[in-house]
User: Fold Mannitol dehydrogenase from Acuticoccus sediminis.
Amino acid sequence: MIRLSNATLSQIQTAATPRYDRAALKPGIVHFGIGNFHRAHQAVYLDRLFNLGRDHDFALVGAGVMAGDQRMREALAGQDYLTTVVEQSAARSEARITGGMIDFLPVGDATAIIARLTDPAIRIVSLTVTEGGYFIDSSGVFDPTHPEIRHDGKHPLAPRTVFGLIAAALSARRASDTPPFTVMCCDNIPHNGSVTRSAVVGVANLYDPDLANWIASEVAFPNAMVDRITPATGERERRLCADDFGIEDAWPVFCEDFTQWVLEDNFPSGRPALEEVGVEFVADVTPYELMKIRILNGGHAVIAYPAGLLGITYVHDAMGHPLIAGFLEKVTRDEIIPTVPPVPDTSLNEYAELIVTRCANPKIGDTVRRLCLDGSNRQPKFIVPTLADRIAAGQPITGLALESALWCRYCAGTTDAGETIAPNDPNWEKLQPVAQEAQSNPNAWLGQADIYGALGNAPILRERFAAALESLKSDGVETTLQRYIAGEL
Assistant:
């Protein structure tokens, strides 16, 4: 067994290791939210680029403000910020050690973080803070009344949020005539760059409207589409890393072998040549992100809740259930794909078929519970907009309404077999009583304005949702899926 560190890299024969001199790397990017997705995605692309001998002045520095960030910092610092990334297809598993991160700032230390962000060498600030971390309501509008945002407005030099820290650093750079860095969102939300701009500008506007206007006009916030299925790390993954590769890693990352990154080319202060390692730079990312968010992320929701209600643990097992697979195929073909505009050089049907293959990959060990997580933040982004488009066009919504009903049933807290579902949403305490009330009053669920907005009042949605919920209650998940697939719901 080899414990991962700089000193042991030369001993590792079971994984690809960095071919560049890590000691010669210089910081160019500060990244907030050093989680599994970042380490399997952005960090891997940079590692590949550094292996080509390119852009060694764009090394990563980690940053964070949450308790989980502190645990990650401790784990990575203990192994010199190296990470084992295991890429898995159904047929093979390959490990690589990424070495593009060279530091991790003290978590929540506003002074230290702002100082590093003010350094002219930092030309990009990137972030993955989860879909629910942007302080936006169901219509996508920034909420300046949130307590954390109000705090940052009152204490601009001691902010507690990522956006307050970015605004403070941009203010300092402006005052010193240092060009602003580019803010690059890597979270899975529609128009993620624009959403990030709204949050940073919204915080700044609370204490310095001139700064807010300057940020809005002078700072680049490119939109991006990011994609790679990356489960959480647990003892299973640590054991596999040790048993299969002989590497002791405190926090290895296991992911699928597929990866995609489409990025608007808007980096006034410079960027690494990521196009050399597979990143696609485009003028407008909108078609790509709509394709991914509606077909992949919407599809994940379609898989998640019937599987959760049937007590299925792993996503690949859910894909092996003919009714769940049939539900996904029909909803995607009939209701989701028709709302996605053409994407350059892409077949939407082939993209959907690829997603089925990816989700069926047994090596990943992705859990149904992970897909079910945080529906209150994900549904307004991945399902509700598709519902809205179809209702506006007068098109059927039977499958999407059924997905919403399945989510409601899941939040009520028991499976079809009567087993308790553990809380699985930051808003579970609010969602569960509403879901339970909806069993006799379906409109209670659709009346959650922070999720459905005005769409919850649409007569066709109320009708189809109520019918689906009644079928689930009286006949159960499997019979309801059978009826939907047969066109009888």
